Here is the input.
Amino acid sequence: MSPFLLLLPARSFVIDPVVINIHTGFLPATKGNALILGNTIMHDSGMAQIRRRMGVCPQFDTLWDGLTAREHLNLFGAIKGLPADTVPIETDRLLEEVRLTEAADVVASNFSGGMRRRLSVAIALIGDPAVVFLDEPTTGMDPINRRHVWDLIEKAKQDRTIVLTTHSMEEADILGDRVGIMAKGRLRCIGSSLHLKNHYGKGFRISVSIREQVGAALETRRAVAKIFQDWFKVQPEEAISSYLVFNVPGADETVLSQFFAEIEQHKSELGIVDIQVSLSSLEDVFLTIAKDSEKEDAEKRGQKEKVVLLSGETVEVVVGNEDEVTSKKGVTFRVTWTADESGKLIVAEILENPTGSVVLDNESAAPQAAQTETSARKTIKPTPAPKQVAALLKKSLRYQATQPMYNCCLVMCPLISVGLFMLIAFLLFTLFLAMPWFKCPYCGPEDSFALTVSSAERLLMCFTA
Here is the structure.
């Protein structure tokens, strides 16, 4: 059996446990069907057969704080039907594999988050299950223990099927023989990591470092760019000093080998110092799938976003659309998108005249870019000062309306402070400064008796009289 790794986007944390709970029988499926070990999950009889040969590590640990790690494994080993004489042996083996031997007799309430997750993984693997569901098993672990659990999962998947959900792209790339990506509640793609990178990735990223030559740097950059244009019809994505970066779509390995052979032959003539080649990562694949799903959802809802060009023109574009668009005034532009913390697509950059390649002559391009930016700034009229003050006042009032307790404290604290100050002043004037509001025989106006008795003694006499 080969393992299957189910990779879910980080913002789909609600769907993540639901998928596991449906396949393990904790939640009923509303429609559709799934077969596990030849048994259907739609009927109780099928789920009863599945549970006999299934192990589960849920997203949230289901441990008893009063039981030790050893007692947990002994209990679940007995539930799985292991013979009584083999339960201690299997328990000791799993405790050693998850590095909990020294904490075997410690109650679970004293475990850290990573230790609880390791114990949950051991519980899922006890009893030699044929199918194991692991819902984010390495959450909360330090890098050393996470790597050790990866080795344990890699070893355990040799003779069983493991369904593992994770938010870590590195974990998915290392452990998954097959990777599935879910977005918006749907399984968008499935395949090996290499297949997904080739199909959904951006191809190869080739970085070329050029020797800095006085007076010949521009010609060298143009010559290198021409070779890439002739072979792959691409222009440099970045051109910084003596450094060029090209995104080459997925190409045949034979073509790439021939291309690099030609580059090697003319390396000295072109002044190339170094070439670095990297393949799209699984993170790039995930971002591509997530953007496509967000774009599809926005198109169904007719969701649009307003963007402002350098000329001040406002244009509406479909959320997620990265194709070139021409405004009513004839300006061609392209919008790139990124996702915020909640997964919503937001504008990342607005590129005007995107069909043009990266300008290799930076010196001549700089004055032109500065002139364009200056003219664009002139076309934007500044907001009048009264409108700015009114906007700030409205914003402040809206904020204050959401903070009633804070505003109450701002009003009451000064009033209470002033009241206490006035009370203290009244007492001082009355008792010590010979300006009483009432006549007291002990602490009243100054007389011969007051001259011989201190203020503290007069106050004591006043209260004890």
Remarks:
- DSSP finds 17 helices and 17 strands in the chain.
- Residues 1-15, 355-359, 362-380, 448-452 have pLDDT under 50 and may be disordered.
